[in-house]
């Protein structure tokens, strides 16, 4: 028999699937609310970890990180399964004065030749990040010495009423109020099996923290 927590997790998964596709216009608002306004801080936390001149972001969503990544010395690509998110990101990138290089596609079969990217990045990816096939595709598309960097989870550490309330809601939905790196040991093992050298670190941010994975080819 499924528990009430597992039923809630299933309902939330369906909700966020619709939010990412059919109701993508409300994605930023919901992300802002559930993160107590810290969503973009969490996404930006990955920026100093992205190295090299040719970058791929998988699961680019509305395009916030895409816009932040553009510089004269970098060639930026993005891939996302959601056409709705692709359209939102395309408009955002064009509005910033840059040329979008976005692909509507699946991480199971990255449409790039081997050894293409210095860094592949993702922020808050869904369960595809655990798939051996996806991990193998990421490994194939990276240059030797390149890294896959991603943030799978964040938690709130602020002490005011609103943060305490949000922390309670996080716990109801099965998320911890503090990040426990040991709970990701199975995921680390999956990446090591493919050939990655894996390191993790917790980044302390304003009223929150995020877990960062470094997976080097």
Report on this structure.
The structure is a single chain. By secondary structure, the chain is an alpha/beta fold. It has one domain: Rossmann fold (3-Layer(aba) Sandwich). Helices cover 38% and strands 25% of the residues. The protein contains eight helices and seven strands. The chain has helices at 4-20, 27-34, 39-44, 64-69, 83-95, 132-141, 161-172, 185-194; strands spanning 54-58, 75-80, 102-104, 117-123, 142-156, 197-205, 208-216. The protein has a seven-stranded mixed beta sheet with strand order 3-2-1-4-5-7-6. Strand 2 (75-80), helix 5 and strand 3 form a beta-alpha-beta unit. The model is unreliable at 1-5, 8-12 and 172-176 (pLDDT under 50).
Explain briefly what this protein structure is:
The protein has 8 helices and 7 strands, in the order αααβαβαββαβααββ.
């Amino acid at each position: 028999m499924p528990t009430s927590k597992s039923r809630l997790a299933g309902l939330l998964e369906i909700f966020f699937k619709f939010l990412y596709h059919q109701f993508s216009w409300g994605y930023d608002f919901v992300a802002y609310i559930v993160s107590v306004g810290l969503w973009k801080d969490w996404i930006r936390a990955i920026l100093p970890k992205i190295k090299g001149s040719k970058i791929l972001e998988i699961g680019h969503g509305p395009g916030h990180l895409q816009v932040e990544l553009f510089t004269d010395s970098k060639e930026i690509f993005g891939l996302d399964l959601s056409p709705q998110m692709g359209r939102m990101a395309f408009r955002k990138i064009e509005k910033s004065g840059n040329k979008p290089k976005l692909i509507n596609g699946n991480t199971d079969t990255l449409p790039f030749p081997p050894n293409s990217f210095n860094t592949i990045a993702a922020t808050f990816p869904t369960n595809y990040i655990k798939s051996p096939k996806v991990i193998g595709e990421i490994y194939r598309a990276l240059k030797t010495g390149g890294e896959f960097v991603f943030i799978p989870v964040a938690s709130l550490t602020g002490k005011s009423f609103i943060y305490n309330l949000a922390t309670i809601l996080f716990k109801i939905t099965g998320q911890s109020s503090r990040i426990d790196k040991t709970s990701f040991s199975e995921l680390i093992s999956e990446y090591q099996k493919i050939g990655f050298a894996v390191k993790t670190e917790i980044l302390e941010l304003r009223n929150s923290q995020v877990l960062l994975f470094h997976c080097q080819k």
